[in-house]
Design the sequence.
């Protein structure tokens, strides 16, 4: 029976075989690697992945699709909202199964556009057990993720993710590559966790960046400057700039310094 895409799940199924091959080549799966696919849908990407891996864990919220996927002998199906999945526990389970205590997960998927940012931040909490991530997302979201300072796309998402990942836009995906076609362009991003990220209080960085970009047209002295005064920050920080003019490493250094304060 043909599956009818459900709007409430943001379902757009990849159908372009050339694009599928390009994504699989970018991921470069190797036999035996522990991989988790988010939102496998009709298994367009799942099948070529599992053919190379031998085994694959998939997370699918749609119960009808999950039922179909369970018929595949090489898939471990987790029927759940991905935001409720404990990726750290998945990694621990995989390590116990194969007897490799340092093993990390590779995570891939065509993320639903309506909850793509929450998924990225959910995975940020499990980054210590992740080898890399390859996601298809709305192109404008990826543009914001990889944006450089002094550009219109540079913002909170850029800073929060670039602190923890090295990222690159690896493939453009047009609307006609899907069924049904979305109204936006898509792209594939590669996210590799940094080996030695600056140690800091993540919630403090998030609050700092949110304040900084709350009024991005104004100089930081009106936003971040007042916030620093309220926090009784004893150091110096150039607030005669707009939020988008400050590089990621300066936001991170400020958060790291403040994290050490009593």
Sequence:
């Amino acid at each position: 029976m043909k599956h009818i895409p459900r709007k409430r799940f943001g379902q757009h199924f990849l159908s372009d075989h050339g694009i599928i091959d390009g994504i699989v080549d970018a991921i470069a799966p190797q036999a035996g690697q522990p991989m988790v696919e988010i939102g496998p849908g009709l298994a367009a990407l799942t099948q070529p992945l599992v053919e190379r891996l031998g085994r694959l864990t998939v997370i699918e919220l749609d119960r009808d699709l999950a039922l179909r996927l369970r018929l595949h002998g090489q898939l471990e199906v987790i029927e759940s909202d991905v935001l409720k999945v404990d990726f750290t526990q998945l990694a621990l389970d995989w390590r116990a199964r194969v007897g490799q205590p340092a093993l990390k997960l590779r995570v891939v998927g065509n993320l639903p556009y309506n909850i793509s940012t929450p998924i990225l931040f959910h995975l940020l909490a499990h980054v210590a057990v992740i080898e890399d991530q390859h996601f298809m997302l709305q192109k404008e979201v990826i543009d914001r993720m990889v944006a450089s300072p002094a550009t219109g796309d540079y913002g909170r998402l850029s800073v929060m993710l670039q602190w923890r990942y090295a990222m690159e836009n690896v493939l453009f995906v047009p609307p006609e590559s899907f069924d049904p076609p979305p109204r936006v362009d898509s792209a594939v991003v590669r996210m590799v966790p940094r080996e030695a990220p600056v140690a800091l209080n993540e919630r403090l960085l998030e609050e700092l960046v949110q304040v900084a970009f709350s009024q991005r047209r104004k100089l930081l002295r009106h936003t971040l400057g007042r916030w620093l005064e309220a926090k009784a920050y004893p150091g110096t920080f150039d607030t005669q700039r707009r939020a988008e003019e400050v590089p990621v490493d300066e936001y991170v250094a400020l958060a790291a310094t403040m994290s050490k304060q009593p």
User: Anything to note?
Assistant: The longest helix spans residues 87-98.
